[in-house]
Specification:
single chain; 229 residues; mainly alpha; 8 helices; 64% helix; 0% strand; flat
Length: 229
């Protein structure tokens, strides 16, 4: 009796890869489809900070001298060198100086970025390339899922304890990422338990004192779990 060759089941992620990168391209800057919308948003944020600067940084309460040109030359030591550092130090201590420096960098950078983004957007439209921001927006929104995972984990620890919460989320999240099957479940479970032993049992990382699940245990077991797990 002959049988055919055995089929080897290899791991296949349920999450399809978006694109493949080379190591040299990881830090390369590229403008995607939704870059114009993002650049407009950044420019509006810069405009908000620029407008807020005039009434929220102390700029409106300053007192300007009558002869501004002579005042600046004296403060920066151009016409009076003695005491220049002290005068410059008094200027830098004023509340509006640091925001002014930030505005001098942020606003031009936002305007130049918006201009470059607009040029790239027009180029993509000219050569019939996609310019919709739905793809980029979907990726930004999909990242919020993992924020939800983290929030759910932090909320679960005071209820079920560090041990149970870490074991559950340490196996559920890899399953969500496509690491499925008994082999991967065992690996993730063992790794999660090792994390508990390292951080809670070994390093004694503090956890909430009032844990609902541990309060249901007898006094001896409750004290043991609160101390080591």
């Amino acid at each position: 009796m002959t049988t055919g060759p055995l089929k080897v089941r290899r791991f296949k992620s349920e999450t399809p890869p978006d694109r493949k990168f080379k190591v040299d391209d990881l830090l390369a800057f590229r403008r995607g489809r939704g870059d114009l919308a993002f650049s407009i948003f950044i420019a509006l944020v810069a405009l908000f900070f620029f407008v807020s600067f005039f009434f929220a940084s102390g700029w409106d309460g300053r007192k300007l001298p009558d002869e501004m040109g002579t005042y600046l030359l004296r403060q920066f030591g151009i016409i009076e060198g003695e005491g220049r550092l002290e005068r410059l130090g008094r200027i830098l201590k004023q509340g509006w100086v640091a925001p002014a420096i930030c505005m001098a960098i942020l606003v031009p950078a936002a305007v130049l970025n918006l201009r470059k983004s607009r040029i790239t957007h027009n180029w993509r439209r000219r050569f019939k390339q996609p310019v919709e921001m739905s793809y980029e927006a979907s990726k930004w929104l999909s990242a919020l899922e993992f924020v939800g995972w983290f929030i759910a984990y932090t909320l679960a620890v005071p209820i079920f304890g560090y041990l149970v919460s870490t074991l559950v989320f340490g196996t559920a999240l890899p399953w969500r990422m496509g690491y499925r099957g008994w082999r991967w479940f065992s690996i993730c479970l063992a790794a999660s338990f090792a994390i508990v032993l390292l951080f809670r049992t070994g390093l004694q990382i503090k956890t909430p004192v009032n844990i609902w699940l541990y309060s249901l245990l007898p006094d001896g077991a409750r004290g043991f779990m609160l101390t080591w797990f």
